Amino acid sequence: MWILNPFEEGRVASPSRTAVEPHDHKSTTNTQKALLLPSVGDSAVMKIFHSNCFFSLCLLFVAPHAFSASFDCRKAVSATEKLICNDAGTSTLDDKLKQTYTTALAMISPSSKKALIEEQHHWITYTRDVCQDEACLQRAYTARITVLGRNEKYVIDDSSCEPSGDGGTCVNVVTYRDPSIRIASFNKSLVQQKQSGKIISCSRLINLPVGTANSNNSYGGVCTLQDGTQRKAVEICNDDMFGHFAMQLFSTPDASNKALLGFTHGQCFGG
Fold first, then answer.
1. What pLDDT is attached to residue 264?
2. Continuous H helices in 108-162
3. Is residue 173 classed as helix, strand or coil in its secondary structure?
4. Which one, out of 35, 37, 96, 199, has a CA that is 20 to 30 A from the CA of 161?
5. H helices within the chain, ranges in order?
6. Which residues partner with 158 through β-bridges?
7. In what order do the strands lie in the sheet with 218-227?
8. For residue 109, pLDDT beyond 70
């Protein structure tokens, strides 16, 4: 498994193979002999072993959980690491992401390299590591590989002018490529408002800037709130200048920003 240090581009060394203890061949049964690795001196047997060793049999002699070549799974500590190590499909995606991220780092402009490294660090902390099963991990990996696989030269957030819904002029909307950048601010607002729980992940984040220098910015996110043992999907918003804050349960499977825009504009926009 690949465990990323976002500030280093090298990969972790491959796991070493488990050493095989010597055996007394004279006191070993035929069945036991059939499963022994040949000794260094048995060159003829070694040739036969290497040319005819089937994959299923070879797995008996390598380190446990050897699904990924870039991480020694015997040293896996976190629940996420163990999930990756225990599933061949997820381990394959982990290795593919390593390769895709390395290519993206090589292709991106020097001016955006720091932003990409920070974005990847956020993805690991706030997306990958909050998963509780292999299905979640595989969705997260697949989506991230798609983003990085575009090999974009710059890390750029999307900007558009969207209908406000109240019949007025359109509203400037910035949709962030990294939806995790506001999590610390959202959690600070939760403490200030004496609300229970903590935001642990966000899948979408927008900003409704007024449009003038040093003016107010109103942020809205579709996020996951961890409250005790429960996790809840919520819409949450706050701003930088006036102390606006709102949060509500989110149940609208809206692929666009329409519902989030309406919530943020109605609850956290303006003076």
1. 94
2. 110-126, 134-148
3. strand
4. 199
5. 30-34, 43-52, 55-58, 79-85, 88-107, 110-126, 134-148, 183-192, 258-268
6. 175
7. 158-162, 171-175, 198-207, 218-227, 230-239, 245-249
8. yes
Q: What type of residue sits at position 236?
A: I
DSSP annotation of 20 reads: -
Please tell me the distance from the alpha carbon of residue 265 to that of residue 171, in angstroms, as a whole number. Answer: 9
Tokens of 231: 């996790």
d(CA 259, CA 200): 21
- DSSP for residue 18: P
Length of the chain in terms of residues written = 271
- CA gap 15, 74 in Å, rounded: 8
Instruction: Indicate the pTM of the whole model.
Output: 0.74
Domain ranges (residues) in the chain: 1-14+40-155, 158-268
Considering just the CA atoms, what is the radius of gyration of the chain in Å? Answer: 25
Q: What DSSP designation does 6 have? A: T
